[in-house]
Specification:
- The protein is an alpha+beta fold and about 100 residues long.
- It has helices at about 50-55, 60-70, 80-95, and strands at about 1-5, 10-15, 30.
- Helix 1 crosses helix 2.
- The termini are far apart.
- About 10% of the residues are buried.
Amino acid sequence: MRRWTCINCGNVEQLNIYPDACSTCGSAMICDDGRTTHGRNEPRVTDDFDLLNAAAEGDAEANVILWQERAPKSTYDTDMIADLLLQNRIAMMQVVFGAAA
């Protein structure tokens, strides 16, 4: 049995299954072992035009924020996200395996 905590309302559930979303508010949940759900809520589309413009101009941080908010793929650079994910995986492997990586 795993403990799932809602990231929105804080509801805690002990479950043997992988939940779709919080049974109280429908938001995403996180497990004690770090797994998350996406929740039933629709993706949030930001109305912050500075953020959207920064992402369009190639700002990595703005692209990551839009990706994390599950904004439509047309608002951020998917290739940049793929490159950043690869860099993150390489960095994690170097930390875990040291010089052998």
